[in-house]
Amino acid sequence: MSKNPTELAAYRALQAHYQNIQGKHLRDFFAEDATRGERLTAEADGLFLDYSKNRITDETLKLLLDLAREAGLEEHREKMFSGEKINTTENRAVLHTALRAPRDATVLVDGENVVPEVHEVLDRMAAFAEKVRSGSWVGFTGKPIKTVVNIGIGGSDLGPVMAYEALKAYTQRDITCKFVSNVDGTDFAEAVHGLNPEETLFVVSSKTFTTIETLTNAHSARSWLLAKLQDDDAVAKHFVAVSTNAAEVSKFGIDTANMFGFWDWVGGRYSMDSAIGLSLMIAIGAANFLDLLAGFHAMDRHFQTAPLHANLPVLMGVIGVWYNNFFGAESVAILPYDQYLSRFSAYLQQLDMESNGKYVRVNGEVVNYQTGPIVWGQPGTNGQHAFYQLIHQGTKLIPADFIGFAQSLNPSGRHHDLLMANFFAQTEALAFGKTSEEVAAEGITGSLVQHKTFEGNRPTNTLLATRLTPFVLGQLIALYEHKVFVQGVIWDINSFDQWGVELGKVLANRITPELEAAQTPELHHDSSTNHLIRRYLALK
Ligand code: F6P
């Protein structure tokens, strides 16, 4: 049943509660409870969350968890894991969790256990990846593969590229992966610049196999290959496809023997642990890929079984709702203190914003409250020298997630301690700030006192793990997947469709022939669009 969150008793109680504590400072929260920093923490299989630097009390948390319960979180969670068709606008089950279920698990879709099929594809991927890695898969002229180019966009790109960067330390370094996504020809041109087609394998990744960007890039890749190899038979040795659409794969000219499938119950942005991860598996090997899946699965189990008050995705989800719906925060910063996670926030942008960027409730009514936040960020310490100023002293409240590791994968002198000193210092500074009295006590006078004062009271979560392993990466991704789910349930939206990207595609299809026409066509857009198109045609 569709429930407007603002009409739930817990929501009303939270509104009243917000009035009482909105002005309260994190300094006071900590002063009142010496154990707060140890108490407001939770852990899932070694992944540690400190949520004490949030503007919450025990009462806040109780009410937020009441809200989650009242919104039906536990029932919805069960429905998702058991394969009910909770993606109602597309009449689909939502079962990315089945992609990482152990071989002996049972997950039913329409009465059929999908786990054997999942593992059959994983086994085929592993065998293929091993051939490429060992050099026994050779190109058309008998040379082993040196570069794997993944062609895909959105969920068929962001996950693999993020994880390839994140797990670079685990990759076989004599094979390089490249990722082509943009329909801008520059992306393809730069990716293949200097490559030898004889040693290049293209993995065309597209759930639907109808996405214009991916098909355009795939066609360019085929022309690039054939320009050198001059024989259509070469395609079979240099192209594989990852898709749910065998008919379109064949139509493109890729033998379906070289196709790795997945299923319509896997959303694009939830698909990196399906065959969409093929390029990643080639890079890191099957064992590491399975370790990644084990991390995902561990977080699935945690989400499914841990009590709500100790459940990482639930805690992060409800705390996010607290800032989004009560404090009016519009964005969330994701700040990993690990260079390997340089693409993590870009990945989470699609995961979160495509999932929860909705203004229509499950029942079709327009919401009268805020839904998904803007997600952004980049790794520390770089961000500190760019946008942190606004987080510290700007006028906007920006809750932030700090993600760090106790051990570096590249230990070198003082680097890691310096990195982590900044990691701890930032959340401390954001929470506690620096008072005018403290500034004045340093001998600062006049208006400079105000300039140098830090209000503090900026909330953060801290996620700390031992080391960035494939397992931990899996845990982290699943943590955010489920956090997004928790929030989608509370906001009563369908987190699993993405109709909002359709209109732009339709209009682009209408404009394309106008740009490609031999003569300037009659244009029937608004005056701005007409004028811009005419100018483009005159200049091109
Ligand atoms: O941007 C819309 C979208 O449908 C995403 O949800 C998806 O990840 C992406 O396009 C790519 O789709 P496909 O894998 O079908 O090419």
Description:
By secondary structure, the protein is α/β, with parallel strands linked by helices. 47% of the residues lie in helices and 11% in strands. The radius of gyration is 25 Å and the shape is globular. The chain starts with 8 loop residues before the first helix and ends with a helix. The mean pLDDT is 97. 6-O-phosphono-beta-D-fructofuranose binds next to loops.
Keyword list:
binds 6-O-phosphono-beta-D-fructofuranose; alpha/beta; G6P_Isomerase_C; 47% helix; five-stranded parallel sheet; 540 residues; 13 strands
Brief write-up:
By secondary structure, the protein is an alpha/beta fold. It contains 22 helices and 13 strands. Strands 1-2-13-12-10-11 form a 6-stranded mixed β-sheet, with helices on both faces.
Mean of residue pLDDT values: 97
Enumerate the strands of the largest sheet in spatial order, edge to edge or round the barrel.
1-2-13-12-10-11
- By DSSP, the count of extended strands is 13
| Structure class | alpha/beta
Biggest sheet details = 6 strands, mixed
Task: Tell me which ligands are bound.
Answer: 6-O-phosphono-beta-D-fructofuranose
Uncertain residue segments = none
| Content of β-strand | 5-15%
N→C terminal distance: 54 Å
Number of helices: 22
Q: What radius of gyration results from the CA coordinates? A: 25 Å
Q: Helix share of residues?
A: 40-55%
Shape assignment: globular
Function: Catalyzes the reversible isomerization of glucose-6-phosphate to fructose-6-phosphate.
GO molecular function, one term: isomerase activity
InterPro entries: G6P_Isomerase, G6P_Isomerase_C, Phosphoglucose_isomerase_CS, SIS_dom_sf, SIS_PGI_1, SIS_PGI_2
Organism: Deinococcus roseus
